[in-house]
Amino acid sequence: MARLIGRDKALVEFRGVTKQYGADADLRDVTFVFSQGTSYGLLGGKYSGVFNAIRLIYCSALPERGEIEVLGLDTKKMSIKIKNLMGIVPRFDALEQDLTVYDQLMTFGRFYHLSRPALRNRIRDLVLQLELADCEGLLIRKLRLFQKKKVALARALIHSPRLLVIDEVCHGLVVNEKKWIYDQILNLKKSGHDIIVGSSDPEEIEVLCENSLLFHRGQLIAEGHPRGLIDKLVGSHVIDFECANGEVEYYFNKLNSDYEVHVTGSRLRVYIKNNQDVRSLQNQISSDHMLTRRPNLEDVYFKTTGHLLEGNWQHLSL
Q1: What is the CATH number of domain 1-85+161-228?
Q2: pTM for the whole thing?
Q3: Residues forming beta bridges with residue 216, ordered by sequence position
Q4: 51-87: per-residue pLDDT in tens?
Q5: Within 13 A of 232's CA, how many CA atoms are on the CB side?
Q6: Does domain 235-294 have CATH number 3.30.70.260?
Q7: Domain locations along the chain
């Protein structure tokens, strides 16, 4: 297993980092510190800065301003050494399409100067661990998306890194496939791996990570334990309901003095604090389309920015 540089060093540290992308600043003066021995999730939608932050962590890009250290090493000076200490599951399919699964893993493992006998043993273990036996001899381009995700994870683990950086690993998967990926990553956490996840899916961050960072338009807008952020910034419950257009102003005026209410078209979203009675509010609403649910990190994001993570629901206020 690759040895980390100094267990007393921070896992990742950003100090005043700005990264330009096109005409806009994709990251603006971002500062944070990740400790070793835990897991972190970077959550944000399109143009939030999460993709760039992940690329900066695994040294695929360098900042215009500020400093970044990964495992105590400066990314501007020690990028090759840093890459050797981590495994990366990138957002986009980076697999060689005309290699078999076995040859893909063998070729990638040679980049880390592993001997052929050691590689064969490691591939055998990963094929068993990640249930790849049924496709080990198939070309990558013949695989289903779920199988490709498994191969990408196996490739990231081929050199037994301690740090695993994962970007949108579950995008495009169905529920049972996501759960399988979650279980694998949680098992890696239990075995001592440090995990950093980048995602636009709040569930992914809540399930996999002990700490979450929310990004919007290149800025870090909230940071903390997922459930702690939800309890502090949202409350105990959320009620979403539809009403006739003529009733929107009526319900807003009726509820806004006691609750936090957000309006989008004919849809109202009401946030209920931990000390407020859910049933009392439900009794005040007459709607055939009412949903009462527990809040999640997307509610934190929406309350803080006025946008959903995909950026397709603009917040309108009366």
Answers
A1: 3.40.50.300
A2: 0.89
A3: 219
A4: 999 999 999 999 999 999 999 999 999 999 999 999 9
A5: 10
A6: yes
A7: 1-85+161-228, 95-158, 235-294
Distance in angstroms between the alpha carbons of the first and the last residue of the chain: 58
Q: Write a three-state SS string for the chain.
A: CCCCCCCCCCCEEEEEEEEEECCEEEEEEEEEEECCCCEEEEECCCCCCHHHHHHHHCCCCCCCEEEEEECCEECCCCHHHHHHCEEEECCCCCCCCCCEHHHHHHHHHHCCCCCHHHHHHHHHHHHHHCCCHHHCCCEHHHCCHHHHHHHHHHHHHCCCCCEEEEECCCCCCCHHHHHHHHHHHHHHHHCCCEEEEEECCHHHHHHHCCEEEEEECCEEEEEECHHHHHHHHCCCEEEEEECCHHHHHHHHHHHCCCCEEEEECCEEEEEECCCCCHHHHHHCCCCCCEEEECCCHHHHHHHHHCCCCCCCCCCECC
How much is the average pLDDT of 206-223? 96
- The two three-digit tokens of residue 261, written as one number: 């209410």
Phi, psi of 11 (to 5 degrees): -65, -50
Span 119-168, pLDDT tens digits: 999 999 999 999 999 999 999 999 999 999 999 999 999 999 989 999 99
